[in-house]
Task: structure prediction
Amino acid sequence: MAQSIYRGYSGPLVPLGLIAVAIPGTPVQMTSLIDPTSLNAPETFSPAASANNTGAAVAVNEYTITCQQIIIQAYKSNGGTGVVNNTGNIYIMMKGAGGLGNRTDFGAMVAVLTPGQTLILASAPVNCNVFSVYKYFIDADTAGDSALVTLVNQ
Result:
C-alpha cells in the first residue's frame, strides 16, 4: 500500500512520514519523503519564476519548511498494519558539521533514541529560532529501523 505524502506545510501539524534507514551508518534526511532532492532547502538556489523573468513554472515553494517543534518517535513498520519498536537505537544527526555525519560522528549527534522512545525538539515562540528540518538526518544501528517524524508549526 502506498503511503501518504503530506504537502500542506502550513500546519499546525505536518507529518513527514516513517523515515527508514536502509543501511546503518548512511543517514537519511528527514525530508526524504516530501522533498527527496532538497529542492526547497534554504541553501538550494531555486529562483522563482517571477524573479528570473522567464515566466516559466518553477517547482519550488515560496518559503522553505520551518517549524517550532520536531516530534521524533523511534518506531518501524510492522509490515503494513501499524508500528512496532525498533530493534536498535536511532540517531538524530545534523548535517554540515564537517565529519562523517553518521552515528559514529558525536560532533554531529543531536540525540539518541532507544526503541519506542519519543523526543520533542522544541524552540522559542513563533518567528524566534525556528528549525529547518533540512538540517536533520536519521541514522540507525539496525537496517530497517525507522523514525516517525512530525513537525509542529504555530
Remarks:
- The chain is about 5% helix and 35% strand.
- The chain has one domain: 13-42+64-152.
- Residues 13-42+64-152 form a domain with the Jelly Rolls fold (CATH 2.60.120).
